Amino acid sequence: MKQAKHITTVQVAAIMTSTIIGVGVLPIPLFAVRGAGSGAPLVTLLGAAVAFVGLFLITRLGMRFPDQSIVQYGEVVIGKWLSWIGSIGVIGFFAILTSLTAREFGEVVITSVLTKTPLEVTVIVMLLLAAISTRNDITTFAYIHLFYFPLLLGPALLIVALSLKNADLINLQPLWGNTHKGMLTNVLTIASLFQGSFIITSIIPAMREPRKAMTASVFGLVIAGGMYVTIVAATVGVFGSEETKNLLWPTLELAKATSLPANVLERLDAAFLAVWVTAVFTTLFSSYYLAVKELSKLFRLQDHKLFSFFLLPAVFSMAMVPYNILHMYETIQNVGRIGLFVTIAYPGLLLVVAILRKKRGEPSEKRSAG
Amino acid sequence: MFLFGKRKRRPSSGGVEERTWRPAERLNEAAVNGDLERVVDQIREVLGENDDFTIRRFQVFGRYPAAMFFYPNMIDMTSLNSEILKPLMYGPPHAERLPEKGDELWDFILETTLYHSDVRSETLVAKVVSDVLRGQTAVVIEGVEKALLFGTRTIDKRSIDQPATEQVIRGPREGFIELLSTNISLIRYRLQTPDLRVKTMEIGRRSQSKVAICYMQGITNPELVEEITRRLELIDVDAILDSGYLEQYIEDNQMSPFPQVQYTERPDKVVANLLEGRVALIVDGSPLALVVPTVFSQFYQTVEDYTERFLMMSAIRWARLIALVFSLVFPSLYVAIISFNPELIPTEFAVAVAGGRAGVPFPAIVEVLVIEISMEVLREATIRLPQQVGGALSIVGVLVVGQAAVAAGFASPITVVIIALTTIGSFATPAYNAALALRLLRFPLIVLAGIFGLYGVMIGLILIANHLLSLKSFGVPYLSPLVPGSAKGMKDLFLRGPFWWMSTRPDFLYPSDKTRISERTVEELKEPPNNVMEPANMEKTGKGGGA
Amino acid sequence: MKSGLRVKKALLSAFAASFILLLTGCWDRLEIEERAVVLGISVDTAPPGAAKREGEISHTAEGFPVPDVHMIRVSVQIALPGKIPLGPGESGGGGKGSEQTVWVVGAEGHTVDDAIMNLQQQISGKLFFGHLRVIVVSEDIARRGMQNINDYFHRNPEVRRMAWMMICKGKAEKLMNAAPELERVPALYLMSTMDNAVKLGKFPENYVGMYWSNSAKQGQEGYLPYVELKKHQNIEVSGVAYFKDDKLEGMTKPFQVAAYMSIMGMNPAGYRGVVKIGGASDSVMVYATSRRSTIKVRMQDGEPIVNVSIFTEVNLEEKINDQITIKDSASLIQIEEQNKKSLQKETKALILEMQEKGADIFGFGEYVRAKKPGYWNARIGSKSKWQRAFKELRIEVEVDSKIRRIGMKAK
What we know:
The structure holds three protein chains of three kinds.
Chain A: H1 9-20, H2 28-36, H3 40-64, H4 70-78, H5 80-112, H6 119-133, H7 138-163, H8 183-192, H9 200-203, H10 213-239, H11 241-245, H12 250-256, H13 269-298, H14 305-310, H15 312-319, H16 325-356
Helix pairs in contact in A: 1-7, 1-10, 1-13, 2-3, 2-8, 2-10, 3-8, 3-10, 3-16, 4-5, 4-16, 5-6, 5-13, 5-15, 5-16, 6-13, 6-15, 7-10, 7-13, 8-16, 12-13
Chain B: H1 36-47, E1 54-60, E2 64-70, H2 77-90, H3 103-113, E3 119-122, H4 125-133, E4 137-141, E5 147-150, H5 180-188, E6 196-203, E7 209-216, H6 222-233, H7 243-250, E8 262-264, H8 267-276, E9 279-283, E10 289-292, H9 304-307, H10 310-339, H11 347-357, H12 364-384, H13 387-407, H14 413-427, H15 432-452, H16 454-470, E11 472-473, E12 476-477, H17 519-526, H18 535-540
Helix pairs in contact in B: 10-14, 10-15, 12-13, 12-14, 12-15, 15-16
Chain C: H1 2-24, E1 35-45, H2 50-53, E2 72-79, E3 102-109, H3 112-120, E4 126-128, E5 134-138, H4 139-144, H5 147-155, E6 164-168, H6 173-177, H7 186-199, H8 208-216, E7 223-229, E8 235-244, E9 247-251, H9 254-264, E10 272-276, E11 283-300, E12 303-319, H10 329-357, H11 364-371, H12 373-379, H13 383-392, E13 394-405
Parallel strand pairs in C: 1-4, 1-5, 5-6, 6-7, 12-13
Antiparallel strand pairs in C: 1-2, 2-3, 7-8, 8-9, 10-11, 11-12
Helix pairs in contact in C: 9-10, 11-12
């Protein structure tokens, strides 16, 4: 299959942002205040910084092997069998991430809007939506992300802007928070919300200029991180850290506490949730795409469409594993922190070995540009 | 909803040659060889069954037997009689001597005798037959190894009218008619440049419809022209009766509800598109030209956007966009809010809406679907009805039925308002085919809204958006220039920027020549205006004379 | 043919999809007119003997596990869909009295949810709280503790944070049954009373969400409007009901709302004040137009001192008699001085009262927490400790006031 190479830097940044921003935006203020009370924005920032380490490693690797993704250069760097384990880990992790994201959003929808609809239905609808979309090629993948990008930032920024008049700076002081119990775990939890950035490994081979991958991923992370920090700051600013701790989805509650000027819409939570479907979709889409695409590369298949529906039952049944909403959040946090090994340690290992063994991919200019 | 497939292009295969001669396949390679009777027999064998086919035998200069073949209904008899038949029978009075057989006779006829300018020679009988079918007149002379073919075709045509579906307040008032040659002339007089290229080909085994491919040499990307020609050559069908047939053979995805080819009956629109680097296809017998490649934004742009002032037209374009979105999502949003999330609307209004709905026995989704469907029925009926009755019926339909439905407790007044707004909104979209697509997609959205509320509406919209994003028209992403983002393209997307903003042609069409407005003009427009007639100037220099 | 197969496939999946949709139906679809749209809720103590009358709906008669909680009575005001006319023109149902536009029903129970379940048992439509605008809690319930009420409304996804919660003198249910003449829907009248009070500067903007946020904070206590039903079915905002943790601690006088808003620097300002200049009869009425306040915390001898400096801009609105003339700016300065003094007295009094009760509705504790985190972390660190520390807190109040305009009369 001739790899089409025409994804632009802007598109990559959009992909990064919209992949990172997902359902995690709903509970993130809760995670952040659990870390350090009024220092929540700082916790978020630290989480983003940790996430950046992983992103930096994977992007460096990608630029070193501009025509391959992690599954392919893994074989080159550490040999077939070891890389198999790593690749299976990556694919499995992203399959789990997909299922947990779908489950989490399903839970949000069930709790707040469609209280009588079976959870299975909302989850399967989201998964189907992602699965159908993964049948597209990578160019359409990039287009889809670029298209939804404004839909992601717009509503969230609107809610932040509308809620600013109720915000109180006192709630955000002191900046470093009063207590720091459990700060590290929550920083890691927040870092794990950024794991979607791993998608860059699948995109670099299709980039027009892989050299600019680093710029793109930094931009993506900065926008997503900035957005998270803004939302956390707005939520804590409006509610105060103690009230935020009382709320399962503080961001949704923030939407509930704001109304459009002139009372066009009296409360924005259901509308926000509806628009937020796109954000969740892009995240799901990316992680599912990553799993499907890398799986097909692992088996050296030309076409990844086969796996789109093949993976679906497995992903769906994984989504049904957590038996209640609190267990689900415990699972999400645990899986996320374990996932940091997959998304930071494994690429780190690969990069070190690649540098030591002086392995490097053939320069991309050899291939004809699409 | 999620079943839009993507058609794979068939691999190109040869087998194009021969095809054009098919009606006369029986003639094989028969040539006009000077034996008049044989040729007459051959032609009669193919065409003679038709009662409207005429073979007129006569003697050229009263000496050489000849035969004339034509369809009398398709030709201009007067000119045939006076310009062709008469000189051929009489011979030129100034001729000193009449020529002998063969080439000499041929040259003499051509150079001295005929008063008709459009004369060709043809040796293959099959070709002669196909030309006669197209309205030409053939003359075969005993002893001459070529047939004479005269362009005598006159087909009755209607006059050039105002375009019925694309009316403008400001802009040209001409629309295409059915005749290809007239349509080409309408384009050519707007583009008096040798760069306008018109290539014609015949498509349709039986209809032999002429299709003209128009493009601008030096602007249009040559690869695009090549691909269009290739796709056209692959079409091997019975008949192309309208450009709509052609559209379905060349578009990328037939399963999509969205049109990927734009049609227009306005020559000025075609010319504007040609100048942007697109290719126009005109089919003989169809008053609608096709323009490819097409992107979604074309469907809400109109000619007037460019003839009027840009600020006003940008605002109006927004109104059109809102109407477009309205016609797609309004009813489903209504269903979702009424049946799932009534907490979104202001309390006073919610209570009032509940009051309006109190007597209605159906759930909102059924109510909306029923009214929507009856609206579609009404609309369809209005199109079919003769014009004189149409207006009356729509008044009866909309006003009386709507009012009665509310009074009978069959629908709530708000539903009627919503549906009316939606319907009007769908008429604000300039392109009928795009409006049709959105009209159709409204229904699955309503159903989804009835199942999942706002969540369902969003799922539906995501499916539609993803489909749009995966669509391509000749490789051009359907949502260009929005996706993949092009800052330059945005100037003519949601806004209609002033002309000097758009000094280059749209880059998603990869035109060979990018500049549209020369830099000097752009610079000049930015200069402060030269106030020639300013009173201060005029009076000081004493030029302001007057009286 | 390939395309034929595709069409078949498409048709098949469309058929399957529609079949699934038909089978599943619409779980959550509930038409707006099928919902019992609750506009207001009142929570009262139940009259004695309620436990015996209660039907065995959410639990058996003896089985309720929270014996020490007294029975409560919850009344809801439900909008009657047919009775509230659509649009402003038709005055069919709205003309006389609002008794017809809403329906007030109540039920008793051990907890809010229990009572609402008992109520739901008696009502056909599903109680829908998405448009709940007013929650009225009676004074004695509030004194007993709001935990249960807060928890229920906080947990319910339908309830808005922008609803008004208020404490009511006497029976709260009376407010539900009140039929003010101005508005078609009584609950909406209650709501607009509060909203307009905010616009006129009579009460700080304090939706239920803000009350929750404030009560949750470690260095602050929540407060709610205190309302009273008057003779003409109208509602008077008669002070701030302040809380300590979740228990009602007391109520202020209406004029103290002005003092509270001055301390917090809340705008718009709306209260009038009388300023005595010389003797008892030489008084003028002034009207605050805008307030500003800065709250600063400084440490002295290891203890925090809170400094509140208030600045108000006032207009002169009325003179009692003609003995004082206002003809130059000097005469205004005199009034300003008096105004400052009285404002200082009032604010000091309010702060002292709150300190006595240990209810920091000003959120001085939050300022300490935010500005002096070292002290807070070492010495306070929890809400109960701050409640104690607040009683001992040194608070300085500085007041500045300027008269800007005197209306259309020249002297």
